[in-house]
Design brief:
Elements lengths: L16 E3 L3 E3 L3 E5 L6 E6 L3 H20 L2 H17 L1 H12 L3 H21 L5 E4 L5 E9 L2 E5 L5 H14 L3 E5 L6 H14 L6 E3 L4 H9 L5 E5 L2 H13 L3 E5 L4 E5 L5 H13 L9 E7 L3 H14 L18 H16 L3 E4 L3 E2 L2 E2 L2 E4 L6 H4 L6 E7 L2 H8 L7 E5 L3 H8 L6 E4 L28 H6 E9 L21 H5 L13 H17 L6
Parallel strand pairs: 7-8, 7-10, 8-9, 10-11, 12-13, 12-19, 13-18, 17-18, 19-20
Antiparallel strand pairs: 1-2, 3-4, 5-6, 6-21, 14-17, 15-16
């Protein structure tokens, strides 16, 4: 790779290494293959559960000092990190294209988003982090957000830079330290580029650890006692396992999972716009996006026109190696994913769907595919394909469109196309979804928006904008007394030992000074009883 000659991106920096308290060699390593050609791009270290334990321990030890660093110094690190990405855009684009199979414009989207996310993180450190609450009794009552401690981040292969840094940056911004496990298919763009960026930007040692690894490393991260939170992005199947393990160890967990996203095209829609949206949503990055348009629901009055336009686009979209050709679609990530996509297409055809375009492949390059006559029960209707497959379903009424749209356990993104905004919004209100786009397709994201889904698409957590405070910090209640209670100046002096112990001095007030001399057992016992009553009156006292 030409970027090997650039010091910042030189593969020798990470060859056979982990970013664990700096760049350090490890016992296991793995070759990273280019999905378009199968050639070796680089070699990286592969972490073990023991590496996770060491990284988490170091991250926890570093967290207090990082959180205490003056906010302007922390903000400067994020701004420098953003500037480094802008400086290194050309080399990073090459890595994203070749490691993920992305076309250059998709790589540009990732880099642009990463810069925005880092600038948002820089802004977070000067945002209000709490509230002043009402209070009686002469004290100030506050609620403030404080870091969890160590945040574990597990990211996927499809948009590895964005889906790693969108958790890493805000987690660091609010004072956490981070252990990142990128997908083993994309450890450079999902992990080591981020490590290099923060290393050069001046992030203190041990605040970020990057450990490529397999499922056992992810499980170890979810179970490690030094890790307080897990942010996971990936498949619903893997997310269930992550959620179960993290929950069993009482960790906060945010899950952003798969999707079977609907694009509903009403009978008054602009057919050109509808077909364009359908093609973009179904084929961008070979359909390997959680927001991909998985089902195109189109009114039967315009279904033929929309489908013909969609087939025309699918037939003419060029497919090839994005590192050497100007193409619209690159390769799927590996042969296993290609075979899964093809299996879904073939099974759906056997179940009655009609192949209108595509359905073939060469190497890892799968042709843009259109299936028509799709019905509930077919694999292409029920399953997240994660490939360039547009499944067209027709409907005759809005009620039927809503019923078909709701025949899924996912709930990430929904698009509705209509010439009537109010009609589109009314219909969309009947379909639970985390993201809603009127007169647009289902694939969209911005650094400052709260991104996430519901149902099998996630557990209600969000990444981005105001949601970052809620996810990566927790509330702490603080009270500050406006005067020193319990001092000698607050209460009348006690009489000498053995004389005139007033009833109110012990029953109504805690004793302000040292207990009376031994022998005054009655007073000592009364004080013990009073403390016991106060303790047992608390709402959180054990039974």
């Amino acid at each position: 790779m030409g970027s090997n000659d650039i010091a910042f991106l030189n593969t020798g920096t990470w060859n056979g290494k982990l970013f664990l308290s700096g760049w350090n060699a490890t016992g296991a390593s793995r070759e990273i293959l280019e999905p378009a050609t199968g050639s070796v791009l680089t070699r990286v270290g592969m972490a073990s559960p023991a590496d996770v334990a060491e990284a988490a321990k170091r991250a926890r030890a570093a967290q207090g000092a990082w959180a205490a660093l003056p906010y302007e110094q922390r903000a400067t690190i994020f701004r420098k990190a953003a500037a480094i990405i802008e400086r290194e855009t050309e080399g990073m684009t090459q890595w994203i294209v070749r490691e993920t199979g992305a076309i250059p414009p998709k790589a540009g989207v990732e880099l642009h988003m990463a810069v925005g996310i880092l600038n948002e993180a820089a802004a977070m450190v000067t945002q209000p982090s709490g509230l002043v609450l009402p209070s009686d009794g002469g004290r100030i009552s506050l609620a403030r957000r404080v870091p969890h401690g160590v945040v574990g981040v597990i990211s996927p292969f499809n948009f590895p830079l964005i889906l790693s840094i969108r958790a890493v940056a805000p987690a660091l911004a609010v004072g956490n330290t981070v252990v990142l496990k990128p997908d083993p298919h994309t450890p450079i763009t999902g992990g080591y580029l981020i490590a290099r960026v923060f290393e050069e930007a001046g992030l203190p040692k041990d605040c970020l650890q990057v450990l490529p690894g397999d499922a056992d490393v992810g499980q170890a991260l979810c179970a490690d006692p030094n890790v307080a939170m897990i942010s996971f992005t990936g498949s619903t199947v893997a997310g269930r396992s992550v959620g179960e393990t993290a929950g069993r160890h009482l960790k906060k967990v945010t899950l952003e999972l798969g999707g079977k996203n609907r694009l509903i095209i009403l009978d008054d829609a602009d057919v050109e716009l509808a077909a364009s949206c359908a093609a973009w949503g179904a084929y961008l990055h070979q359909g390997q996006i959680c927001m991909t348009t998985g089902i195109i629901l189109v009114h039967e009055k315009i279904a033929t026109k929309v489908t013909d336009l969609l087939v025309g686009k699918a037939t003419h979209l060029p497919v090839g190696d994005p590192a050497t050709q100007q193409v619209a679609l690159g390769p799927l990530i590996n042969e296993r994913q290609r075979d899964r996509v093809h299996g879904i297409v073939q099974d759906s055809i056997k179940q009655g769907a009609k192949l209108a375009a595509g359905g073939t492949y060469e190497g890892n390059f799968y042709k843009p595919t259109v299936l028509t006559g799709v019905q509930p029960g077919m694999r292409c209707f029920e399953e997240e394909v994660f490939g360039p497959v547009a499944s067209v379903v027709t409907f005759s009424s809005e009620d039927e469109a809503v019923e078909l749209a709701n025949r899924t356990e996912y709930g990430l993104s929904l698009g509705v196309i209509s010439n009537s905004t109010s009609r589109a919004l009314t219909l969309a209100g009947r379909v639970p979804t985390g993201l809603l786009h009127i007169n647009d397709q289902t694939v969209a994201d911005e650094p400052h928006i709260p991104f996430g889904g519901r149902g099998n698409s996630g557990n209600g957590g969000r990444h981005g904008g105001p949601a970052n405070w809620e996810e990566f910090a927790q509330w702490q209640w603080v009270t500050i007394g406006t005067r020193h209670r319990g001092t000698h100046s607050d209460y009348p002096p006690l009489p000498p030992a053995g004389e005139g112990w007033g009833e109110g001095q012990t029953a109504d007030h805690p004793l302000p000074g040292p207990l009376p001399p031994a022998g005054e057992g009655e007073i000592r016992n009364h004080y013990k009883e009073e403390r016991s009553c106060k303790r047992n009156s608390r709402s959180d006292a054990p039974p």
